[in-house]
Sequence to fold (289 residues):
Amino acid sequence: MNTRATTPAGPVDGVERLHGTARPDRPSRAHRAAGTGELTFLGVVHSEWTKLRSLRSTVWTLASAVVLIVGLSVMFCATEAHETDAEPAFDSTFFSLAGLFLAQVAVGVLGVLTITGEYASGMIRATLGLVPRRLPMLWAKVMVFAAVTFTLMLATSFVAFLVGQRLLAGKDLDVTLGDPGSLRAVVGCAFYLTIVGLLGLAGGALLRHTAGAVSALLGVVLALPMIVGMLPASLQRIDAYLPTTLGETLVTIQPREELLSVGSAVAVLTGYVVVLLAAAAVTLTRRDV
Fold:
């Protein structure tokens, strides 16, 4: 009688079968370190990509961001195209990308859910069981989330820009990607939305609670600018360093004295993410699950 040796399913195989992601043409063992059950970094990245694309929240939040950016571009630019007189300093590029100020909420919430969802479901224990050093899991989440978000938001920003300029062409208010600052603004829109998502992810890793992390994020990007706006004029310079204002800097073509330079805005936003992710990394390695 012929017998066939079977190999017990390892922890990676079990998780992949649970999510229906095991592939016979590329066994999950290819992503394990030799002689151990621990995932290699490539395996961790593959796992995070599988989890991100299988979440319903990924589809709904990113779809909402796309609709908001393009939809508000159509609304703002169509409204301006029907006005009798445009303002002398009308910024066509800014109007076509202004949807980012609502889209940032959807992208930020997805960033939070990318990690707090695992804490809420208890799946984080299985994840860290496969990645006991923990930090590779965090960096893999950051890489996958940033790559997916930036790619989709960049494509969406291009669409919003082109649609908006098409609507403004009837009044000769349109610009092209070849005009000074236009391409930079389109890329800056995608960059800013990715940054907001990473702030949400870092906040979720720090707080480990969806409602708390989402509330904190909304407080920073929506409530804080209003609070600063009520401060005495001598203190309102703080506004230039708030994330939402920095995002405005990246998509604004017409120079404004109260805004930082584009390079400074990129540096400050990057600094915020680096600091929060560093804090998240420290807490992840020191706290129990």
About this structure: Residues 26 and 258 are 54 Å apart (CA to CA).
